[in-house]
Amino acid sequence: MAAGSGDRRTERLLNLVIALLSTRTWLTKEQIRRAVPQYEDCASTEAFDRMFERDKEELRELGVPLVTGSASAWFDDEQGYKVDRDAYALPEVAFTPAELAVLSLAARVWAQASLAGPAARALTKLRALGVDVDEQSLAGIEPRVRTAEPAFQPLYAAARDRQRVTFTYRRPGATEPVRRSVQPWQVTSWHGHWYLVGHDLDREAPRVFRLSRIEGTVRRTGPAGAYDVPDDVDGRAMIATAIGGTDSTVRTAHLRLAAGAAGQLRLRAGVPAADADRDVIAEVAFTDPGELAATAAAAAPHAVVLDPDDVRDAVVRRLRGVIAAHAEHDLRAGHRTDVPRAPSSAAGGAGRRSSGRPPVQPTAADRLSRLLAMVPWVLEHQGAPAQEVADRFGITTDQLVKDLELLFVCGTPGHLPDDLIEAEWEGGRIHIGNADAIARPLRLGIDEALALITGLRTLLDVPGFSGEEDREALTGALAKLTEAAGEAATASRALAVDLARDVDRSVQPTGEDAAAEVLATLREALRHPAGRRRLRLHYLVPSRDETTERDVDPMRLLTVDGRWYLEGWCHRASGVRLFRVDRVVSAAVLDADGTPPPDAVARDVDEQLFTPGDDDLVVTLELTGAARWVAEHVPLDSSEELDDDGLRVVLRTPDDRWLRRLLLPLGGAAVVVDPPEVAEGLLRVAKAALSSHGLQEHVSAAQGRDEGAAAEGGIPHSAGAAPEHPAV
């Protein structure tokens, strides 16, 4: 018997599967206890009962069709167990290499998420069918989502099982959280955040809840299957409506833009590049006055709104709010230098949202799933080289030997020599025998099927991501997988991921069409028949509000927090850089080798995109409750709760211009506490912008509360208008 606790658990689960597959009659719990040697470790009947209940649940999650029935012809209350052998096996399905390649890519969507295990197990089972993955066709493409929120797993499980939940929820700007009771319909990733869409039983209406605002424990209550989900549920549309409203009336504003500045607004207005060094009057189309006011305020003092009045007034409120809030803070706190400065050696990024979990470690269930896939494949490929088997199932040859050693001590009840599985690996070639009970690959479990089906649907929705051949592979794989998964596929509506629609329309005014064109060009450079090709990018640098030209050797396309990035060797910077795809104004493939130099190393983006520098400014801010969202979108050194739902945060930036572009749209909802020179620079810009609008520069402290409150009423409540951190 293997020595490790994980080995013993895998051994016990494998023997349990074999025992329940081998029997033609129902086995009682007592018979199972005698048939599986590892249950002898249980000190009491109660301990065995608890272990057996856990094992049953684990097998069902893996897709093992464990069924119950009467074990006695005379007594109906004597329950027995066995595995439905007709439902056990994965149906025969033939995936093409291209289809299995996109299935592998779909599994990668969950590489940093809680469904990573089920996705990997599903892929392992499908690989047991004998189709080789064309890894080259996937080179440089890394779509991924994260599930850092503690509420994700219970809410996903509740939506999957159609089971009611209760939780405590804090709405934006609310001082106290409220208890909610909800029937979950779908858990959806949208613009890098997870949301629950469902029926709010207290409000008796559909509602949307952001998972990061759920406090404490999510409790599942009542039976599974307690309600039906409406057929027409569109989680992404519900979230977009809840966050952005429904008014889509297009209006026009006129802005005076200073020479050599306001690059983002110039792009949005379509100002010709030849006019870059001239003052211009630009026409800007918009639907949301608050969004345009935030963008104009961020460009202060280089952008002046001439009309309409509601946008102009919204900009002025923000600028006066900045001045008023700082004046009021000085009255409360004395002089700003009385506040202790944050130590410059603080660890960068400690407050950044991260994956929230260590790298996923294989579990006993993962190993069991691998064994149940590996045995059928080896039985069909006797004598396969050890390295080939190890590569196919994603393990080392040392781990393969450990797996074979475990198989060697498992078998049908009785566990005499003739009952045990035969495993040989001498001479570097693998042979397995006497394993008829598990000779067919196990079907997909619900979580496994759902992870891959959701991943495939996610890739299908990405504009410009798939060419005709890729789309054919995606649709083919999705159809075959859905059929092969059978009943497990019916729960796939419980989960949705959107990697397609996070587009900065100030850079790509035509939205998804422009984003699709850029993404397709970047993929062409990565997958060019002649090898990787160099790219020429025109790229907006938001922190400087300017467009630059870059020649880049592409390394990979990846998603982080809902956004697509190109990572590559930038010849202008002579280093590896990340470029947000929706900040690419235009991209062209050059007829030049795009192979990055040997010292071009991909960055570790699993935790954060921002790497602090020794010369960065360390800035302390105080945020009101209306601006708490900043802490979720900006890398932080630290954060501290304040009264009235506020936060004191410490962040780093190599460029205070980026900080001004972040803070000016917030009006009175954010104050620079330290260092004083950063606060003074912010106030100079706000006063100059007021002057450009023909208004007074000075706002007295006595006016502070009213002006600050007015500004807060119109500030953005999301990161939609926030500039990207300069290091990203």
Describe the structure in your own words.
With 728 residues, the chain is an alpha+beta fold. Among the domains are: 152-244, Roll (SH3 type barrels), CATH 2.30.30; 251-307, no CATH class; 335-354 and 612-721, no CATH class; 512-593. The protein is 35% helix and 22% strand. It is built from 21 helices and 24 strands. The strands form 6 sheets. Strands 3, 16, 17, 18, 19 and 20 form a 6-stranded mixed beta sheet that branches. A hairpin with an 8-residue loop joins β4 (164-169) and β5. The longest helix is centred in the middle third of the chain and has 25 residues, at 309-333. It is elongated. The model is unreliable at 335-360, 503-511, 699-721 and 723-728 (pLDDT under 50). Residues 340-358 have a biased composition (Low complexity). Residues 151-215, 517-588 form the WYL domain. This is Transcriptional regulator. Residues 331-363, 697-728 are annotated as: Disordered. It holds the Pfam family HTH_PafC.
Short description:
The chain is α+β, with helices and mostly antiparallel strands and 728 residues long.
Would you spell out the secondary-structure blueprint of this structure?
Layout: H1 5-22, H2 29-35, H3 45-62, E1 66-70, E2 79-83, H4 85-88, H5 97-108, H6 116-127, E3 141-142, H7 152-161, E4 164-169, E5 178-190, E6 193-200, E7 205-210, E8 214-221, H8 235-244, E9 251-257, H9 263-269, E10 280-286, H10 289-298, E11 303-307, H11 309-333, H12 364-380, E12 384-385, H13 386-392, H14 397-407, E13 422-424, E14 429-433, H15 446-461, H16 468-485, E15 495-498, H17 512-526, E16 533-541, E17 546-560, E18 563-570, E19 575-580, E20 584-593, E21 617-623, H18 630-633, E22 636-641, E23 647-653, H19 656-663, E24 670-674, H20 676-692, H21 704-712
Parallel strand pairs: 3-17, 5-15
Antiparallel strand pairs: 1-2, 4-5, 4-8, 5-6, 6-7, 9-10, 9-11, 12-14, 13-14, 16-17, 16-20, 17-18, 18-19, 21-23, 21-24, 22-23
Helix pairs in contact: 1-12, 5-6, 5-15, 5-16, 6-12, 6-15, 10-11, 11-20, 11-21, 15-16
InterPro entries: CBASS_pafABC_assoc_protein, PafC_HTH, WCX_dom, WYL_dom
Domain WYL: 151-215, 517-588
Protein name: Transcriptional regulator
